[in-house]
Amino acid sequence: MERSMILAWILVLSSTVVLTCCRSYYSDSVPYVSAPKKVTHLHFFLHDTLTGESPSAVSVASSNITIFPDHAAVHFGSVLATDDPLTVAPEITSEVIGNAQGLTVLASQHELSMVVYLDFGFTRGEFNGSSFSVFSREVQDGDRVCRA
């Protein structure tokens, strides 16, 4: 019985300490002050190669329903896996500083519209070891690419 009482007092005291520590964040009398914003400017080039000996994006799944003309490389329901190099200059032979890996799904039956998930990972340079992810919709209208 005595051990139970000791355990009960320990639980009561520890919960009191936790509530006291966390109360200041939610207090009405102490305003929340956010940290200053930090802006980082990234400059790199992504090379997406669909053909040739070593393509960086390949079709991994495809639907047997085809809406687009037969000469289209990919159709509605297609899924492409991507491992694109990121370089410091527009030339594909320039220094590689990372890669963008992810998936692209052709998600529209009536237009060339894709849902894209890419994880950009940096392996060299100032941002070595850093990464960020993008999940977006991409609509191709003729020669233009409209990103939403």
From TrEMBL:
Cellular localisation: Secreted, Extracellular space, Apoplast
Keyword Protein transport assigned: no
Domain of life, source organism: Eukaryota
Record Pfam families: Dirigent
Family statement drawn from the similarity comment of this UniProt entry: Belongs to the plant dirigent protein family.
Cited function: Dirigent proteins impart stereoselectivity on the phenoxy radical-coupling reaction, yielding optically active lignans from two molecules of coniferyl alcohol in the biosynthesis of lignans, flavonolignans, and alkaloids and thus plays a central role in plant secondary metabolism.
Subunit structure: Homodimer.
Name of the protein in its database record: Dirigent protein
Organism: Hibiscus sabdariffa
High-level lineage: Eukaryota, Viridiplantae, Streptophyta, Embryophyta, Tracheophyta
